[in-house]
């Protein structure tokens, strides 16, 4: 993600110059508003966060300066009041000047004063509550495309429970969001995901796994009704390979590696490695990968075998996935969902049942406004304007 080359106007604003005090460089309400714009990238958010931190430091320094000034004023006023009633000696003057040199005294005096005033001033600094922060994911939207980045760099995006809980949550949110038409899931250049978190699960027992349906919530991804595209760079091992296979389309960076090494840990794939992989690449290759745990597929091999639909240079794969997601996202959403349903049905039922299911859905598309619009646009030689109805 960090290598994406196209930066939005927000990035350009935020990147212009050092974090000094000039008004154009400060984070303003306009920048916040821009952050909702479709052109915002993950990089924008990182820069934005950085700029916010710098602004906070600057504000803190300014606050300290004001406090010091106010504190000095309090000390001088107190000294003047004292001098009005008593004859100040040289000793008193020395005490006052040394008090002025102590930031703590000045700040305390200022705080007392400001606390006294604050009871009368409006609460203009109140900030609206923000949504809870994601610990393991980064998310962004580009037009009708949502991009979810697995972000647990120190553990090669190992899929710990917390990561999957967050993933399910954000995918559900994007699935419910009518402004989103397709979702891209990606990781880092080094790892899409190096599998389930081995350290987290190593001491678990059978009874608790069975009783709690351990990792059963992973399958929620397959319930997402909008198209999902996995943009895979680096390791996609074990649960990482299975996560990619739960997506509708897989694009791979040229250095991607797909594997099912579970057998080397004394266990077996548990989220589709022995099922989806067979359907994707056939029995012999799937057996070889799962039985040895060490025969992995390179990106090119994965493409040849049909696991991956396209391979791109590592730094382009996310952009290419987003482009495809944009294409899909601009088509009629209900019709897109019908295609997804029909293709997924082919994994579940015999051919005759699948064909009947497909024909019924085909018939039903004629009840949609988008079918009327799509066919009218073709007849009138213009671009269709789908309204997702
Ligand atoms: N779990 C936990 N931590 C991991 C994992 C993982 N799967 N993979 C990597 N890490 C951590 C390492 O422990 C290391 O952490 P630290 O620095 O604290 O020691 C850090 O990531 C970097 O890893 P390495 O130093 O090992 O990096 P290398 O470049 O030397 O090696 C590899 C990279 C080859 C990817 C290596 O890390 C590796 O072999 N990882 C394990 C791969 C694996 O076996 N995956 C399968 C896991 S089991 C699984 O996925 C079952 C899924 C079942 C789903 C069931 C759903 C119902």
UniProtKB/TrEMBL annotation:
<feature type="region of interest" description="Disordered">
    <location>
        <begin position="1"/>
        <end position="24"/>
    </location>
</feature>
<comment type="similarity">
    <text>Belongs to the enoyl-CoA hydratase/isomerase family.</text>
</comment>
<dbReference type="Pfam" id="PF03907">
    <property type="entry name" value="Spo7"/>
</dbReference>
<dbReference type="InterPro" id="IPR014748">
    <property type="entry name" value="Enoyl-CoA_hydra_C"/>
</dbReference>
<keyword id="KW-0276">Fatty acid metabolism</keyword>
<keyword id="KW-0812">Transmembrane</keyword>
<keyword id="KW-1133">Transmembrane helix</keyword>
<dbReference type="Pfam" id="PF00378">
    <property type="entry name" value="ECH_1"/>
</dbReference>
<dbReference type="GO" id="GO:0004300">
    <property type="term" value="F:enoyl-CoA hydratase activity"/>
</dbReference>
<protein>
    <recommendedName>
        <fullName>Probable enoyl-CoA hydratase, mitochondrial</fullName>
        <ecNumber>4.2.1.17</ecNumber>
    </recommendedName>
</protein>
<dbReference type="GO" id="GO:0006635">
    <property type="term" value="P:fatty acid beta-oxidation"/>
</dbReference>
<keyword id="KW-0443">Lipid metabolism</keyword>
<dbReference type="InterPro" id="IPR005605">
    <property type="entry name" value="Spo7"/>
</dbReference>
<keyword id="KW-0456">Lyase</keyword>
<dbReference type="InterPro" id="IPR001753">
    <property type="entry name" value="Enoyl-CoA_hydra/iso"/>
</dbReference>
<dbReference type="GO" id="GO:0005739">
    <property type="term" value="C:mitochondrion"/>
</dbReference>
<keyword id="KW-0472">Membrane</keyword>
<feature type="transmembrane region" description="Helical">
    <location>
        <begin position="66"/>
        <end position="86"/>
    </location>
</feature>
<dbReference type="InterPro" id="IPR029045">
    <property type="entry name" value="ClpP/crotonase-like_dom_sf"/>
</dbReference>
<dbReference type="InterPro" id="IPR018376">
    <property type="entry name" value="Enoyl-CoA_hyd/isom_CS"/>
</dbReference>
<dbReference type="GO" id="GO:0019888">
    <property type="term" value="F:protein phosphatase regulator activity"/>
</dbReference>
<feature type="compositionally biased region" description="Polar residues">
    <location>
        <begin position="1"/>
        <end position="14"/>
    </location>
</feature>
